[in-house]
Amino acid sequence: MSLTLEYFYQKTSTKYNLKLLTTSVNLNKEITWVYLLDDINNSSFVRGGELIITTGLTTKCTQKLDHLINAAYIKGSCGLLINTGMYIKDVPSRIIEFGEKNNFPIFSMPWDTHIADIMQEYCNEIISEQKVVLQKNSVFLRSILRSSLKEDIQILNQFIGFRVVASKIPLTILHFAQIELDNIHYYICSTNSIISTDCNIGLSNHIESIDSMYQYYMQAYKALKVSFIKGQNLMHFSDIGLYDISLSIDDKYVCEYAHKLLSPLNDSELLNTFRVYLECNGSVNLVANKLFVHRNTINYRIHQIKEQLCLDLDIPENRLKYLLALYICDCDNINF
User: Fold this and answer.
1) DSSP structural state of residue 61
2) What angle do CA 93, 95, 96 make, to 5 degrees?
3) Staple partner for 2: which of 30, 37, 139, 226, CB 3.0–4.6 Å?
């Protein structure tokens, strides 16, 4: 699991006399390094995720300090630690307000606390954690490639209870392991890590067996693809229904057959009505309610569909065949 500001603050706040000044901000942010920054000209070296320490040597409480803090925030640092006492007696209220407004954690630390001590402790633990993370990521990759080693079992057992999460773009979430495969990002994490999202995400079922990691990986992949098909940001594998079968079909002939079945319906309105009708198991009332049209209109459209397809929709096998054909075409048409 990634190291966070919350973790270090709880662990070392008493030891180093740290004080959180922005009390309403979220400390659940990953920390990647600790960087001493007193000259704003050096802010270009900040890569993102660092805890920035400043003494005010060149900025003091002037506007230069405001510019330095703003630069640290823009560069994506996880927070700011101000070493008070020598150059900055007290942190100005405007600085604290900036942190509160932008959910940017700001701490203070007295001058008699040695910066070198806190930097050494934090960086040593970060380096150790990075080694562990690399190991976990390697185990994760081997598990979905079905090439796990005997020594992987201990780490794999720690995956149990989590989910595999898939996304086309990198996610800023707390995770146990992560890999990128075929331009898709996969994570081992809990559902609680995903509070809200503006991007498409697919989630597997909860991991119950380490021998089935490939299946959980495929579940996340399929759920991600269906999230694009349905236009939903968050998609659980347990909710994809027949798309599970559709996405498992890798046969050009089957795809061509599905397109051929539906080819007589070249009217998008009829095609959409047909889809909803099949998904509602032939209930005209449900279709009318979902499409916000009168049931007589739905009956008329269904009559047209039956005529164009030369199809008896009272036969359950026919309804299932055409619903599966629709889903196969969805999977074939999606630009993924």
Assistant:
1) T
2) 65
3) 30
Domain shared by 229 and 149, yes or no:
yes
**Residue 306, class by beta-carbon neighbours within 10 Å (0-12 exposed, 13-18 middle, 19+ buried)?**
middle
- Tokens for 177, please give them: 């392991």
CATH of the domain at 74: 3.40.1390.20
Nearest to 175 by CA among 160, 184, 157, 163: 163
Residues in the chain: 336
Total number of domains in the chain: 3
CA separation for the pair 118, 112 (Å, rounded): 12
Is residue 273 a contact partner of residue 322, using CB atoms and an 8 Å limit?
no
Tell the burial category of 169 from Cβ atoms under 10 Å away from its Cβ (0-12, 13-18, 19+).
Answer: exposed
What's the CA gap between 150 and 172, in Å, rounded?
31
pLDDT value at residue 134: 93
Say whether both 173 and 93 belong to one domain: no
Question: Can you tell me the distance from the alpha carbon of 100 to that of 93, in angstroms, rounded to the nearest whole number?
Answer: 11
The parts of the chain modelled with pLDDT lower than 70 are: 1, 195-196
Q: Residue 67's CB: how many other CB atoms inside 10 A?
A: 13
Tokens coding 19: 């004080």
Looking at the fold, whether 289 and 222 belong to one and the same domain comes out as: no
Contact between 11 and 86 (Cβ < 8 Å): no
Q: What was the pLDDT predicted at 61? A: 77
Task: Give me 304's structure tokens.
Answer: 């047209």
Range of the domain at 84: 5-113
Cα–Cα distance for residue pair 324/193, rounded to 1 Å = 34
> Domain boundary residue among 83, 113, 143?
113
What pLDDT score was predicted for residue 1? 56
Residue 267 covered by a domain: yes
Pick from 240, 257, 287: which residue ends a domain? 240
Q: Is 262 in contact with 325 (CB distance < 8 Å)?
A: yes
- Quickly tell me which residue has 């995770």 as its tokens: 175
